[in-house]
Amino acid sequence: MDLSFPECHKCHVGILLPLSDYGRDGATIMYKAWTCSHPDCGFNIRIDNGDISFGKLTTQSNK
Questions:
Q1: 28 lies in which domain range?
Q2: Can you give the pTM of this predicted structure?
Q3: Residue 23 is assigned to a structural domain of this protein
Q4: Which parts of 1-63 fold into alpha helices (H)?
Q5: What counts of helices (H) and strands (E) characterise the chain?
Q6: Which residues contact 1 (CB under 8 A, 6 or more apart)?
Q7: Residue 43: what pLDDT?
Q8: Do the Cβ atoms of 44 and 35 come closer than 8 Å?
Q9: Given Cys at both, which of 11, 51, 57, 59 links 41, Cβ 3.0 to 4.6 Å?
Q10: For residues 7-15, average pLDDT
Q11: Segment 5-18 mean pLDDT
Q12: What's the order of all strands across the beta sheet hosting 51-54?
């Protein structure tokens, strides 16, 4: 299995790290979002209910 991740196309410094989540029924959703590893960049891309969004401000969840 290849464990290399793509370079961030916004800052070209960080790499895009995959994030997973759980669906409404508790099923794992692999690679629901990707975020840049460089703290000053903040680039992210995610899938919500079939819609793809990117660049929204990320915050820490209280859950």
A1: 1-37
A2: 0.72
A3: yes
A4: none
A5: 0, 4
A6: none
A7: 92
A8: yes
A9: 11
A10: 94
A11: 94
A12: 16-22, 28-36, 44-48, 51-54
How many whole angstroms separate alpha carbon 52 and alpha carbon 63?
23
Residue 5 and residue 29: Cα distance in Å, rounded?
18
Q: What is the pLDDT of residues 18-34, one digit of tens each?
A: 998 888 888 888 888 99
Q: In whole angstroms, give the CA distance from residue 36 to residue 20.
A: 15
Half-sphere exposure of 7 (CA within 13 A, CB side): 5
- Looking at residue 55, the DSSP 8-state letter turns out to be S
> Is 27 a domain residue?
yes
* CB atoms near residue 24 (< 10 Å): 5
When divided into structural domains, the chain yields a total of 1
44 located within any domain: no
Does a structural domain hold residue 53? no
In three-state secondary structure terms, 15 is: strand
